[in-house]
Amino acid sequence: MGDKVIVNCTVVDGRTAEGGAPVPDAAVLIRGERIAAAGPLAEVMPQASEATVIDLGGAYVTPGLVNMHTHLSLSLPGAEGEGVKAMGPHDLALYMADGARRTLACGVTTVRCVAEKDHADFALRRAIDAGRVPGPRVFTAGRALVCTGGHGHEGTDTLECDGPAEFRRGVRAQIKAGADLIKLMISGGIAGENERIDTPQLSADEMAAVLETAHAWGRKVTAHAGPATVIAEAVALGLDCVEHGYELTPEVAAAMAARGTALVPTLLVTRCADFFEELGVPAWMRARSLGAGPRHLESYAMALDAGVTVLLGSDMPPFWPFEGTNATVRELEHMSEAGLGPARALHAATLGPARWLGADADLGTVEAGRYADLVATDTDPLASASAFRTVRWVMKGGAVVRDDAAVPSLA
Ligand SMILES: [Zn+2]
């Protein structure tokens, strides 16, 4: 690949939420997979004499989005989900590859998978990394660990464990398969028929066994969690991230902020009635989801008040259509509108996740040395998170993977 230089654009990234400023009339020089220089046009162009020029026509350029709560093999209760659950390994792998391609086209250049079926995520990641299928960079937990009958036990995207010894073995089995992090279900949730959102599901010795083992191997742990009491217990034991956090209190939010435990609020899952209807999910699940909505939003506000680091995650596959856009962008709009604002929303979608993943030397900003994972939007992401509805160009690792202005091609 020869050098490329992107011109006629304004560069914006998560650093604006930390006192940085957007760069109007910017240029980004790309050498191989990475950014070689980014800044004002006049500073970058002298280094770009050999580069192919990509004129973005006045677009805003941001880092590719990172979706921190993804399931590409998701099967919710109901007819649609049963179809996914019935797939054998070959169909499942192709289904997930299709989802990965669609995800990348949305401008999501990195995903954190937090429970995928049958370890197909590892095969998918190998295929993406080898260039056999298009898709985002994949950080994955493999199977989520649950107690017998615990949240999500119905599918092969979880592994049932009971007692500290089995949970330790569960952690090691995921790491053996290639897991970058560990996902744990510590309470009930929306999609489990025999549980409530506030059902505690793990004992303290089980949580401690997971955290101790995962941390010893250098893996972070994130937990699906609803009620404050169980979250408080897990945070005190060293939990690195909370998913959903449906029923936080100011006390537990303060503890999360003090210990650096992040929150991926997934606001979408309690505000998507029409979507659940379309999908044919059972009435009990729709009722539970909507019923939890107001408290979920209060929890999110408590987290923001306490200064908890919040990160973008849709729970739904990132590309699934929601209200005129995709799940990732709809979630970011909810996060922004419910108190975060557009600049911090951009941070929660890029730099914040890159830091949690320990990948901020490679991802999350438009800066020399980072992978050239970039998206272009027509409108300003600092004015509104809805700017990501206007994504029209996507680059991953220096290769343009979407360009709405180009002649369609299958090459
Ligand atoms: Zn989930």
From TrEMBL:
GO terms for molecular function: hydrolase activity, acting on carbon-nitrogen (but not peptide) bonds. Residues 60-399 form the Amidohydrolase-related domain. InterPro entries: Amidohydro-rel (IPR006680), Metal-dep_hydrolase_composite (IPR011059), Metal_Hydrolase (IPR032466), Metallo-dep_Hydrolase (IPR051781), OTAase-like (IPR057744). It holds the Pfam family Amidohydro_1. Keywords: Hydrolase. The keyword Hydrolase applies. This is Amidohydrolase family protein. It comes from Sphaerisporangium album. The lineage of its organism: Bacteria, Bacillati, Actinomycetota, Actinomycetes, Streptosporangiales.
